[in-house]
Write a structure and sequence with these properties.
Elements (H helix, E strand, L loop, with lengths): L3 E4 L3 E6 L18 H9 L4 E2 L8 E7 L2 H12 L4 E9 L5 E5 L2 E2 L10 H4 L2 E2 L2 E12 L9 E10 L6 H8 L13 H11 L6 E9 L6 E5 L4 H9 L21 H6 L6 E2 L4
Parallel strand pairs: 4-11, 12-13
Antiparallel strand pairs: 1-2, 2-4, 3-4, 5-10, 5-11, 6-9, 7-8, 9-10, 11-12
Length: 272
Amino acid sequence: MLPILFHDQHLIAIHKPAGLLVHRSAIDRREHRFALQMLREQIGQRVYAVHRLDKGTSGVLLFALSSAVGRALSSSFEQRQVGKNYLAVVRGHPPLAGEIDHPLRRHLERCERGSAATATQTQDAWTRYRTLATSELPHRVDRYPSSRYALVELEPLTGRRHQLRRHLRHISHPVIGDATYGKGSHNRLFQTLFACHRLLLACVELRLPHPASGAMLTLRAPLASDFCRLLARLEWTAAVPPQWLPDGREGPVDSAAVDDQRASHLSFSLRG
């Protein structure tokens, strides 16, 4: 059963676990489990995906319950009306804060490949980041006698495919566990030291206007237990804003109470 963060007559948000595709994709033809289909079977109703999370990324994933609401939510994402916060463990020690303004070449679907017009197309892309904690481990990777890592908070201001992972690689601080844009030697160190075999990237919060009421809705997915255990091993737990930790919530979400209080639409949390 997928953990439900919020559910009303218009939309539903879940906490997607790492390793689960949002929908069927040529990226992994062997995969037979998809969040969209699992959620459809779980609630007995058709759902519409309005944004993506990479297979390895965990956290808040939002679906519409009608095509009309799906179009409204997609428009909110396209018009940059949705605030997004992620947490990631990265290689190295980034500056305390910064903004990455680096256009990204568009990732093409199969039907678009071979088109000269789209092959070189780039899209503007911006990401804000803040370093929350750092650590240096006494283990040699490559030519250095020790290895540096950091916990960063990320706020993508645009929504390009793989934006956060590509931007962090661009500034030489790739996400740990990223087999595509990261570095295998650092990924293997985390596998050896911490039994960590996942991408250390999580969407912990979305903020958006509700498509029906217009009231601001905050959806939170506190970090999953495997992510939390890693932070504890690195002594970084205290650096995480409490609302993004499982114990930082005020209490479990009561779906009946939420339905009775739709007009207020404030903030909802659920243990990851």
